[in-house]
């Protein structure tokens, strides 16, 4: 049985989802010959460290009851720098202004000789190539499947299953909130403000929805795709972005009468990055409804490959993180 020690930096919805996924997959991990131990967990108020392995059920209960796992004075950087382990799971919230605290966590992890698996989009949208080079210079893995598309395995598909193909373009829907709003507006002929309120009540949209509905979240994900797959050195400021706030029920009804739907489409092609509402034929692979995400990868050999799935949710995102952890465990 091979022991893989990890830390979980950031114990919000995604971090807790990782802990629950590890607990639910104990039998599977044993069959794979992997003893996956969490030796450090941090949240905004402190951290828990146990080099023999943290009791994850107790940590989740303490987080629920007290709002924190903190049981000492140390912090995330102390875990990353001082606690011996193999993989840092960086799951702090996305900060698109400067990438912190995730950016410093990742830099320190590579400096300390630890692989990084992350769901945090901010550092990758601002410093993708720097982080990629830091991992390569230190002979470490840098895995980020969970940053785009939740459970949809875009990067694994392109870099591994489609190896040998030249990717000529990618287009897709990368924000479930916008897709839910447009789907409800079209199907129920409801105005934008009413559907947005409904989405907020269901927990699909944030109290401040600007990050989603103005296309910023989609632009960040598109940048990560472009840098990873096309080798660009772009930031989200390089994306031509138009959100969905000005779309009217009348426009959707007109599209419907002509067998189209309106979707917020992200597109990377020939070095140009755009996020904008577009007319999509109803039977087109991109015409998915609800909160689904979808990505169409255009290749020279395999043609168009389209994958779709849940783009958000703590367990769905954790599934991508667990996949990246297992990739490193099997490859290192």
Characterization of this structure:
The chain contains 13 helices and twelve strands. It has 332 residues and is α/β, with parallel strands linked by helices. The strands form two sheets. It has a six-stranded mixed beta sheet with strand order 3-2-1-4-5-6, with helices on both faces. A hairpin with a 2-residue loop joins strand 9 and strand 10. 44% of the residues are buried.
Unreliable runs: none
Number of helices: 13
Approximate strand percentage: 15-25%
SS content category: alpha/beta
Task: Describe the oligomeric state of these chains in a short phrase.
Answer: single chain
Shape: globular
The largest sheet is:
6 strands, mixed
Order of helices and strands: EHHEEHHEHEHEHEHHHHEHEEEEH
Distance, first to last CA: 15 Å
Spatial order of strands in the largest sheet: 3-2-1-4-5-6
Q: Whole-number average pLDDT?
A: 95
Kindly provide the radius of gyration, computed on alpha-carbon positions and rounded to a whole number of angstroms.
20 Å
Helix fraction, binned, reads: 40-55%
Total strands: the figure is 12
